[in-house]
Structure formats: C-alpha cells, structure tokens
Recover the amino acids of this structure.
C-alpha cells in the first residue's frame, strides 16, 4: 500500500469512526459499539469504499491494543488484590468454562455436528472478550467494583485456559499433526524461568531504569523503557506458551506498586486508545452481513442459544458462589459474548481441518455480532439488576490503588515541595484522603519516606488527571512553583472537570490574577501571604488587639489584597 492509499484509507476510517462514535454516544450505547459499526461500514463485506481486504492482518496488528489494555489493567491491580481474586479465577472461572463449553458442545451435537467440531465450538464460545469487557469497565471506573472484580477473575481464567485449548486442537486433528518436541518437565522449566524473568524486570530493573531517566528529565527514554517492558513481558509469556496479553498484564501488576505507575499509565494511554479502537474496528470488519442474510434463521438460532447458555450458567454459578442476584445478573449479561481469542482458536482449527469453512464463518460471525451487542446487553443487565437492589444502595466505585482508600471524595495535590508537604501533613492530620504528584523523583522518594501517597507524575498532563480519577475528587490543590505548569493544570481541570474546585499557589499578585483568569477557584500569592504573616507578628508584638489583626487580614484577603497592594 503506497502513502496515498494509506492516507485515503485513514481518512475513510476516521470519518466513519467519528460519525459512529458521536451517534452511539448520543444513543447511550458507548463508543465501542460505534467503533464496531464503523468497522462494518469500512469493511470489505459491505458496498461502498473499504480500507482493506486483509481483515485478519489488521486484527492481528490491532491486538497490540489488547496487550496495552491488559498492561494498564495490571497497573491498577496490586499483587495483593490479584491474590484476593483466586476464588473467582480458579473457582468461578474454571467452572464457567467447563459447564459452558459442555452445554454449547452438547447443543451442537444435537444438531448433528461432528463431535470434534462441536467440542471446538463449545470451547471457543465459552470464552468472553477480555478487551471489550475490560475496556467498558475501565471507561466506567468499575474495575474494582464487586461485579467488575468477579468478571475480571473469570476473564483471567479464560485467558489462562486458552493455552490448553490451543494445545488440544492438534490432538483433535490427529496423531500425524501432533508431536511433542519438548518434554513436559523442560516446558514447565521454561514457563517458570520466563515468569521469574518478567518478575525480576518488573520488580527491580524497570523501576530502577525509570528512576534514573526521571532524574535526567528524559521523557523520551522513559517512554521507550516503558514500552520495552510491556513488549518484553508479552514476548516472554508468548515464548512460554502463554498469551501476549497475559505477559503484559503481569508486568503491569509488578509495576503497580511502583511510584511511577500513574505516570506510566498517563504515557501509555494514547497508544492504548488508538490501538484498542483499531481492534474494535477490525472486529467490525470481520462481520459479513451477506452471509448472515443468506441464512438468518440459523445464525439467529445459534447466536441466541450461545448467549442464553452463557447467561444462565454464569448466573447460576454466581449464585452458588455467594453473589447476590443483582451482581449475578450484571456479570452474566456482561460476559455473554464470545471473545477475541475465539478468532485464534477457530483459525487454528480451520488450518488443521478440524472444522470446515462453514463452521469457521458461523463462529466468527457469532463472536463478532455478540461483541457488537454487548454494550446493549450490559445496559439490559444493569436495568434488570436494578430490580433486585434497594433504591438507596449506590454503585460501588472503583478506587485507585493507593494506601489511602477510594478515589471518590479525595483531594488531588499537585506538587510535593515545601508547600505541598505542609498541605499533605494538614490533610493527613484531619484524616482527609489525598493523592499527591511530583515530577521530581527525590521529592517522590521523600513522600514515600514520610508515609504519604506521593507518585511520580506531571500534574499538567491531562492523561495523568484522568488516570488519577480527577472526576471523583472533591478538590485539587496546586502547589508547584512553575507558573506555566499550574496554568496548564488549571486549564485541563476547567475543560474536563469544571465542577471540581481548584486552589493554587502563586508567586505574587500578578501571577495570582493570571491563575484566577485561567479558572482557579482561589489563588494565594506567596509573597503577599508571607508579608501579611510578618506584619501580623509585628502588630501583635506592639500590642494591637488580636481581633483587630484578624479583621484586617480577612478584609485584605476578601478584597484580593487591595489594602496592601503596593501597585494600588
């Protein structure tokens, strides 16, 4: 493809994606459904202009977005929380795969499918879309909610189960295609060795390198090392026979305890957003409406049966594991679709002639259309679940992984220098939850020594504010010395979170005026406040009554220091 063709395809894709995202957001179905429909429009299976016929190649490349998505999810889940999900992963997740695969395979056998094809289609449809579900939960801030945690545990088990599923395909194809080139003990050793490699890099090597680069203010090097860590972990787990996405997720988990985790997420978010968007477009491009129209009743029958089986089994298992009916309904509707790894299983089975082309096409269509309707099914599940919870019971909010508690209702502190430290001490003394950011690694280290949740990051970066859940904050306090950084942070807050009050430190009255004009709720000129404090002590020492001094101070601040401004 030459440059002109590439740009033309990009223009067509961006126009379709933009229009569909706006439309589906307006309909309340979210941007993911819009991207899937945009993929149908620009795909090779619909009349009109299309961007490529190599849909599988586009989808394979765009799966890098799934890798980055799982890395970001890992950054938000500390190892302790991952361990707490072991019941959902190995219990609920394992049983869901076994019972769902058995039920769908049984339905296929009843419809006279060959037993090998029935088993493959059962295993394929048992897994759900990690990319789709986690992106939806991430956008809504529900990853740490009860239904988000349980859904994630099931999805993680499904990702782990892909490995034995893929290993089973050559066995089904026959002994001539199946050979064991590596002994089992050696294969286990490779898995353990590469896991330790990822752990060592994520726990020690990468944080050490990022700290050195942060001291040097080397942003480009920081981003390169960060991306290297993601793809190194993905490659290592792939070499061990596991999935790329699982390796990236583990690297994210290991880096989640680092003080650089929030800035890493802020840097990686744009790349993740573009690639995951392209992935959903590629899934939409896989939907061949002509094949569906050719046999609509058969397609609708299979799609509805798969969705109903997955909902019923997931619902019953959730109840058996002690979840209430509201959560069980949310989870079962959220995981009712097929997943992106189903494309891999079906492609492998077709390549080894375990399934024929008709089965392959039907499987691809059921997965793709199921993903298309997932936002609608999730809304339906939430609507039904609403009848089983008390009206005054609110949604559990996701929390950012820090020691201070949930993201909702906390203060965001920009800068941990001299002034920021004082603010942090007073917030802690009054038991007010907060999170602080500073782009000086030495100050971040001091904050850690002080026992405060201080993370490395540029408070003027809008992606950092988004990752810190600024929309859930009650207040933003900016104490950074650089005026341009403060102005940028205020501008981003006003544009994206207009309802959140912002108070800022200013150098003098002129700087204070600029910050107020930019949108700060209050700005305190440091030099003027120092002068007032000096004058206050002087007045006390010469016998002026305290009430008079307090009245003078409050009047000066109320009138924006007009009484004491030498420029007046």
């Amino acid at each position: 493809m030459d440059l002109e063709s590439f740009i033309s395809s990009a223009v067509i894709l961006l126009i379709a994606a933009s229009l569909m995202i706006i439309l589906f957001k307006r309909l309340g179905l979210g941007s993911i459904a819009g991207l899937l429909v945009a993929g149908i429009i620009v795909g090779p299976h619909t009349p009109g202009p299309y961007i490529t016929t190599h849909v599988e190649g586009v989808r394979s490349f765009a799966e890098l977005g799934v890798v980055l998505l799982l890395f970001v999810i890992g950054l938000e889940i500390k190892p302790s929380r991952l361990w707490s999900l072991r019941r959902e992963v190995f219990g609920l997740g394992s049983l869901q795969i076994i019972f769902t695969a058995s039920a769908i395979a049984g339905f296929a056998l009843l419809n006279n499918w060959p037993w090998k094809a029935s088993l493959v289609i059962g295993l394929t449809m048992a897994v759900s879309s990690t990319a789709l579900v986690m992106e939806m939960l991430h956008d809504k801030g529900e990853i740490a909610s009860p239904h988000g945690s349980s859904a994630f545990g099931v999805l993680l088990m499904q990702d782990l189960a892909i490995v034995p599923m893929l290993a089973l395909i050559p066995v089904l194809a026959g002994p001539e295609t199946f050979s064991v080139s590596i002994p089992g003990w050696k294969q286990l050793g490779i898995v353990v060795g590469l896991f330790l490699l990822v752990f060592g890099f994520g726990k020690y090597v990468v944080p050490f390198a990022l700290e050195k680069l942060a001291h040097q203010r080397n942003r480009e090097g920081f981003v390169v090392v960060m991306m290297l860590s993601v793809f190194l972990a993905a490659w290592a787990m792939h070499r061990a026979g596991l999935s790329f996405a699982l390796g990236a997720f583990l690297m994210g988990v290991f880096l989640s305890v680092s003080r650089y985790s929030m800035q890493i997420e802020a840097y990686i978010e744009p790349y993740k957003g573009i690639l995951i968007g392209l992935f959903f477009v590629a899934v939409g491009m896989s939907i061949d409406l002509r094949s569906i129209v050719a046999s609509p009743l058969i397609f609708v029958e299979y799609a509805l049966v798969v969705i109903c089986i997955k909902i019923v089994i997931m619902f019953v298992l959730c109840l058996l594991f002690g979840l209430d009916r509201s959560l069980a309904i949310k989870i079962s509707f959220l995981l009712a679709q097929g997943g992106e790894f189903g494309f891999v299983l079906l492609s492998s089975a077709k390549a080894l002639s375990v399934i024929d082309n008709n089965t392959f096409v039907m499987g691809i269509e059921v997965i793709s259309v199921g993903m298309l309707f997932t936002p609608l099914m999730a809304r339906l599940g939430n609507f039904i679940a609403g009848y089983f919870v008390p009206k005054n019971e609110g949604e559990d909010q996701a929390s950012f992984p820090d020691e201070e508690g949930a993201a909702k209702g906390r203060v965001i502190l920009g800068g941990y220098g001299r002034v920021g430290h004082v603010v942090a001490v007073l917030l802690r003394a009054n038991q007010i939850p907060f999170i602080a950011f500073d782009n000086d690694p030495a100050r971040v280290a001091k904050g850690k020594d002080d026992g405060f949740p201080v993370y490395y990051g540029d408070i003027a970066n809008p992606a950092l504010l988004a990752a810190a859940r600024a929309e859930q904050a009650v207040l933003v306090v900016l104490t950074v010395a650089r005026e341009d950084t403060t102005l940028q942070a205020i501008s981003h807050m006003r544009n994206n979170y207009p309802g959140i009050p912002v108070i800022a430190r200013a150098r003098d009255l002129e700087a204070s005026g600029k910050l107020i004009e930019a949108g700060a709720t209050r700005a305190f000129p440091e030099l003027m406040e120092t002068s007032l404090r000096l004058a206050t002590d002087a007045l006390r020492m010469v016998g002026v009554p305290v009430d008079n001094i307090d009245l003078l101070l409050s009047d000066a601040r109320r009138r924006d220091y007009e009484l004491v401004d030498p420029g007046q």
Remarks:
- The longest helix spans residues 184-215.
- Confidence is low (pLDDT under 50) at residues 390-406.
- Residues 91 and 462 are 39 Å apart (CA to CA).
- The two ends are 67 Å apart (CA to CA).
